[in-house]
Structure of Cupin domain protein:
Amino acid sequence: MSDQTSQNLFANLPTDLTDELVSVLAESAHVRIERLVSTGQCSEPVFWYDQEEHEWVIVLKGQARLLFENEDDPVTMLPGDHVLIPAHRRHRVEWTTPDESTVWLAVFYSNRDPQK
Amino acid sequence: MSDQTSQNLFANLPTDLTDELVSVLAESAHVRIERLVSTGQCSEPVFWYDQEEHEWVIVLKGQARLLFENEDDPVTMLPGDHVLIPAHRRHRVEWTTPDESTVWLAVFYSNRDPQK
């Protein structure tokens, strides 16, 4: 028997979500890898995420729009699009497509490269 | 002008690779996120990766087979398939499809969760 088996990021996608679904895929002291699934969910208009950790995030299915505080225009995220959200860079999910599940892969981490 | 722009993981895929192409997408003291592109490349039959860091890796395009030391059968990786390779778990890429570019997203990190 193998101790190494793979799982699929696009398996077991719920079709009837009332809230965003968060699944932790891997975790260590300094990093957390999550799958996020949304179906038309977005942040409340008055809500901003303000996170302690940096977040590198990619959309792998579906579509979304991310708005950063003090920006006029949202960033449209199509499959393959990725963006780095520095810690405490306030942002919100302005829109996700209601037509299908939007699958995000997010890597949260706490320390920036000391050389940068 | 926005200071937040996205990039696409599937953009600028080279079509004529002689070696695997590695691009660092984000990096900190404890984590490194890389895009890996292979077109038919695999490890030499006698070569094993033996890494200091844990590697969480997902195939997002193409196909590959990963072989772990002391396993009879490789793990087939199709788009969406992901696997955690613990540090020093010896492995090699037995095969990637020659028909198209295989795009991997890999997250390398140095510390395991102390609770596990």
Remarks:
- Strands of chain A lie at 7-8, 21-27, 31-38, 54-61, 64-68, 75-77, 81-85, 91-96, 102-109.
- Residues 112-116 of chain A have pLDDT under 50 and may be disordered.
- The two ends of chain A are 44 Å apart (CA to CA).
